[in-house]
Design a protein that fits this description.
Blueprint lengths: L3 H24 L1 E6 L4 E6 L4 E6 L9 H31 L13
Antiparallel strand pairs: 1-2, 2-3
């Protein structure tokens, strides 16, 4: 059995890795597109919407529903990518503990 000092060092090292992973997540900018690239959104690592770009051809009176649907779809794509990348970063930081359901741990 490992001594307590060794376990404490491992716990501190994992805590540092998790903090670094959280910083990496915060720095992320993830793009989602829809409509063949006619709508593009960028999300920050926090999930905050940073940018919305739309092709001018979508600015047609009476087509608001189409634009709305494309915006929602682009956001969903970006959100899915962000969640996947966040999970990957946190699992990598957790090392051998990844996948264990430890209360209070973000992986």
């Amino acid at each position: 059995m490992k001594d307590i000092g060794s376990l404490m060092k491992q716990a501190q090292a994992m805590q540092q890795k998790l903090a670094e992973a959280q910083e990496s997540v915060a720095a992320l900018e993830i793009e989602g597109t829809s409509g063949g690239g006619m709508v593009r959104v960028v999300l920050k690592g926090s999930g905050e919407l940073k940018l919305v770009e739309m092709d001018d051809s979508l600015m047609v009176p009476g087509e608001g529903d189409v634009l709305s649907d494309l915006l929602v779809a682009a956001h969903a794509v970006a959100r899915q990518k962000l969640e996947a990348q966040t999970a990957d970063l946190m699992k990598a930081a957790a090392g051998p503990l990844a996948g264990l359901k430890i209360p209070g741990m973000p992986f």
